Amino acid sequence: MRKSIDFNGNWSFAKPGEAPVSVTLPHTWNAVDGQDGGNDYWRGAAVYTKSFPKPLLKDGERVYIEFSGAAMTADVTLNGVPLAHHEGGYSTFRAEMTDALRQENLLEVTVDNGENRRVYPQKADFTFYGGLYRDVKLIVVPERHFELEKDGTPGIKATSVVDLARRSATVMVETWQNGGDVEITVDGKHRTVPSAGGHAEAEFVLENVRLWDGVADPYLYTASARLESGDEISTRFGCREIRFDREKGFFLNGRPYPLRGVSRHQDRQGMGNALTMAEHREDLEIIREIGANTVRLAHYQHAQEFYDLCDEYGIIVWAEIPYITEHMPDGRENTLSQMRELIVQNYNHPSIVCWGLSNEITASGEATEDLMENHRLLNDLCHQLDATRPTTMAHVFMLETDSPLIDIPDIGSYNLYFGWYLGELEQNDRFFDEFHAKFSGRVIGFSEYGADANPQFHSSTPERGDYTEEYQCLYHEHLLKVIRERPYLWSTYVWNLFDFAADGRDEGGKKGINQKGLVTFDRKLRKDTFYLYKAAWSQEPFVHICGRRYADRAEAVTQVKVYSNQPSVALFVDGNEIGSMAGQTVFTFTVPITGEHQIEAVAGECRDQIILRRTAEPNRAYLFRKAEVVNWFDKADYDPNCYSVKDTMGELMQNPRSAAILGKMMERMTASRGDVAKSASGNANLQRMMAGLPLESLIKQAGGAVPAEMVKSLNAALQQIRK
Ligand code: GCB
To answer: Does some domain include residue 546?
Structure first.
């Protein structure tokens, strides 16, 4: 018999030089300072200790300790005896403690999220919370038991191969143990097999197999294994066939199954990454509510509970390691160990369909030979550990499409931010059209796209960089069209379903938060864009009027936008129908307003209401850039023979003096907006794409990162340089 003992209670925690405090796990020390901006959250080594009496052990029983997440590295000692050193903050590891146990014990875990050049992530647009932020357990097993230590393995692996025509599946179950015969059971059938070299395997054929069929029918089987000693383990698995097609995208069980969904970061307002099942479940429910059939679990291994929920609800998963933003020559070993753990620990989840090697890895520099080699090794490792799933990568949008890096993974994917950080919305369309036409052999997906919105900000003339909900809506309406018109995209992921902490950010009226979420950081508010995707994806009938937080409007005639998955929508103003329209997803009405009005949308059985008010002046609380003076040319002595912000980037880059001024400004512009913006500014490929844009339009896109005063002095400096 195997016993699992909850070990979350009664810990003592101390940062260096501070008095210890009592904590209960899960715990992070960055729940507050990791989310308040300034990029100054505490990173370093802190110590967790716990005293406990020796557990009662029967003859020969062994005790292991299991950590489901210790960020980012951990050293475990028991009564002064070193038990484990683990690098990587997102995976499970276990260590045996039996021989170091005494009657009274002191367990010490030093957890370190300090900077180094070996363990990923070190540079990325999210907070690297430190702590023992997932469950800790003791596991008591008989002397003969299934493997617990190697790569945090579950000890059992199930591989199913489906024959769709015969409606059957062959299931190979493998186990690892320290000897003895193994009784393996699948679907009521038992097989007893010997352990050879610590490994046992048995094959089963399932006739009339019930497939794991995505959201429609995510049926799960169980494989269990038992030793004569009584040690027993089990895993759920699914029988499904996956395929990736260059023209038709993703196939599940022989049918096209377009993967349309969202990305998720795990953290929460006020909690950081120290979550319980309640938060995981709530996130999963929101994914179901929006109607997504896939989630990219970015940018690291998520909690086992979450992969389990995805299995249960049929949500397809992109899984990845935090090999992100910057290649570290000394980090190779760590990428390999994090990938090994990701695959070994998650192999049995039918929801997972690919392994992501890296994210935007060329964002901070060129694809050096060392970086290429690292990717080849990772790719080979994935194939060696898992012959059933392809590898993929999320490329940064300025990676040249003919880069040899793109040829390494089995299938590809791009993160594009045209229409947010830089460029025009239509560049998204052109990018995929050109890619698809040029590379006849490549399967391509859309791993990230998004725009920040603070639900406090509103505009009837939304513009890129204004952080309004209305611009986020416009942006995503366009991107939804891009995706609908390109069924070959094997998967698409909104960045992000939830706002998340990136302590280095300071923009859009909030410090420390990336606001590209469709839902706020506390999960309480669904931004209007959430309902755009719900209208596109969900089968549950509903209607939603946009702009409920944009009640005061200074215009006599305003636009009322309605999102619905119903075929037609009627709009009522103060009880009178002013129009009805048939369409798909987005329904836009023009509404004259005089005073306070009740606006109601009716679509089939569904209704929604908001209040709108005509005001004399625009409500300044809706504006992000309140103090901004946008007239940069108020001096009469503007000289067209000298450089100015009206010149294009290309022209300004040609003159060394104006190029130097531009460089300084770019540094300033991108300092608080995350790494994508930063690396975009220094990227030659992107600079080529942007060469035709006037500097002033780029400044507008920067979303207030360049204050008006600075633009003025910039312009004055440029005016000193003759063309
Ligand atoms: C990206 C990164 C992601 C960032 C996002 C952004 O491309 O992959 O980690 O959070 O851009 O919002 O800038």
So the answer is: no
What pLDDT is stored for residue 717 in this prediction? 86
Average pLDDT of the chain, as a whole number: 94
Q: How far is the CA of 492 from the centre of ligand 1 (A)?
A: 15
Kindly state if the Cβ of 495 falls inside 6 Å of ligand 1.
yes
Given a contact cutoff of 8 angstroms between Cβ atoms, the answer to whether 160 and 239 are in contact is yes
The whole-number pLDDT of residue 632 equals 46
Cβ contact 311:63 at 8 Å: no
The answer, yes or no, to whether any atom of ligand 1 lies below 6 A from the CB of 112, is no
Structural domain of 591? 552-622
Among 242, 268, 294, which residue terminates a domain? Answer: 242
For residue 160 and ligand 1, the question of a CB distance below 6 A is answered with no
φ, ψ of residue 147 to 5 degrees: the values are -60, 135
Statement to judge: residues 320 and 466 lie in one domain: yes
Judge if the beta carbon of residue 514 lies within 6 A of ligand 1.
yes
200: CA distance to ligand 1 center in Å? 43
Q: How far apart are the first and last CA of the chain?
A: 83
What distance in Å separates the CA atoms of residue 289 and residue 358, rounded to the nearest whole number? 29
SS3 498: strand
From 565, 597, 622, the end of a domain falls on 622
List active site positions: 360
Q: Does residue 305 lie within any of the structural domains? A: yes
Ligand 1: which residue has its CA nearest to atom 1? 676
In terms of domains, do 289 and 392 share one?
yes
The pLDDT tens digits for 185-204 are 999 999 999 999 999 999 99
Please tell me which residue, 3 or 628, carries the higher pLDDT value.
3
- 325 in ligand 1 pocket by Cβ < 6 Å? no
| 115 and 160 assigned to the same domain | no
Query: Which run of H or of E encompasses 14?
Result: strand 11-14
- Kindly report whether the global pTM for this prediction surpasses the value 0.90: yes
Q: Is residue 539 part of a domain?
A: no
**Do 368 and 309 belong together in one domain?**
yes
What pLDDT score was predicted for residue 682? 64
Cβ of 320 less than 6 Å from ligand 1: no
Return d(Cα 130, Cα 503) in angstroms, integer.
13
Residue 248 maps to a domain: no
- The reply to whether 202 and 337 lie within a common domain is no
Ligand 1 atom with minimal separation from the 514 CA? 12
From the CA of 394, give the closest atom in ligand 1.
Answer: 8
Distance 422 CA to ligand 1 centre (A): 13
705 pLDDT tier (thresholds 50, 70, 90): low
Can you read off the two tokens belonging to residue 623?
Answer: 């504006």
pLDDT band at 703 (very low <50, low <70, confident <90, very high): low
CA dist 70 and 130 (Å) reads 8
Which range has the worst mean pLDDT, 575-584, 604-613, 657-666?
657-666
Q: Of all residues in the chain, what percent carry a pLDDT higher than 90?
A: 85
Structure tokens at 27: 């715990």
Closest atom of ligand 1 relative to the 298 alpha carbon:
9
Q: Give the distance (Å) from ligand 1 centre to CA of residue 522.
A: 20
Segment 385-402, tens digit of pLDDT: 999 999 999 999 889 999
